[in-house]
Design brief:
The chain is 9% helix and 50% strand. The chain is mostly beta strands.
Amino acid sequence: MKAKTLALAIASTLLPTSAVWANSDISALEARINELESRLTVTEQTAEQAVNTASQFEFHGYARAGLLTNDDLNGATGTGPYMTAAGSLGAPIGRLGLEADKYLEANLIHNRVLDDGSKARFHIMLADSVETNNEWTADDSQLNVRQVYAELSNLTSFSGAFENATVWAGKRFDRDNFDIHFFDSDIVFLSGTGAGVYDVQLADNWKANFSLYGRDFGEIDSSNTNIENYIATMNNRFGPFQVMISGMVAADNEDQAVAAESATKRAENGVHALFAYHGGDFFGFNEGSSSTGLLAGQGLGAELKGIGSNGNLNDDAKALRLFSYGVTRFAENWRFAPAFMAEYSRDRIKKDDKFKWASLNVRLAQELTENFEMVYEGSYQYMDLDNSVEQASGSFYKATLAPTLKLSTASGFFDRPELRFAVSYVDWSRDLDNYAVSLANDASTMGKGGETVFALQMETWF
């Protein structure tokens, strides 16, 4: 009423004293003021509701694009972290200076928070990868929705061990996948479509994640859903220690057609295990970080990196992998990042096949100015390969020199974007020339070694 009285007083003052207000005019003015007050009330309620249901959008991404040429000024083909004869087994080498693909990821996220603290999160991820250097790549595009899922957390009805838990469903990468960046290799990569719950507090120092994923095995393409592999996982963290156990089953996988000369039957189940220690320093010797662990698998679980992703494995397949890597600063302007992986497997596709490989990579960065550094990388891989038909053993070598520009060299190995020029020399034992590791529908081959590769590349993430 105060606002209404004030409005009438102002109106009376502005009108000539000789003007006589009719009752109808005053009623119309009061009606307009009442309408204005109603609108203000609705606006206040809408604003209050917006505060109580806050929404936020996020955009994150990763991208790399590189141009590679050999010493004959021809496009370098067949290069990359898995270019060796053991690449089909998941054996990587250092990635620096060898990646020619144009790959991108775009992550769109919507967060919603209620006034009681309950949270919802929707995530969609688009990705594309091409080899061509041309600007118009529609015919070569592999644009794909790699993730689409929703999460709920901080729910008021949750209590006890589930008080801080997150529940999810959809198509996604498992939240706790982790990798060795310098190899461009995941340690574990669990993905598919399913549901799960994260951060169940089973004890003061024990958190666990539970999930169920489904993946398809197809002989022709990934749209074949005749055989599905169901993967149940329990991922435990005890302080710096991680214990992850996965069991899987794929009914009727044994009945699928297998590659020629494959002996034993395809696996219909499997077990996968990861034991790891994630240190808060560089192996106890210096500041930094490090991780070391062991993976083991049997049957469908013998695909140690992409858990449950290989339907061609034999029932008797067995694999064991060791990994260790770390990052530290060992001098004022020097950074150091060693990485090691080794694996032994047998009876993967054919009875009595045996594969052994070990990869060592070292990356050094010398900070010359605030924005410029020299990056050096050396890789060595030993492999002893027997696919039960032919055998080969030998070594692979790579040395890379990469002048690099970035916003701040002091920010470490994992700050992006980076703009690089790189020169790499690659060579390998003659016994590995043109050797193929035949793994059903997949194989890696190498020509002859002793080649220099030049590269221009950008890489960014945020």
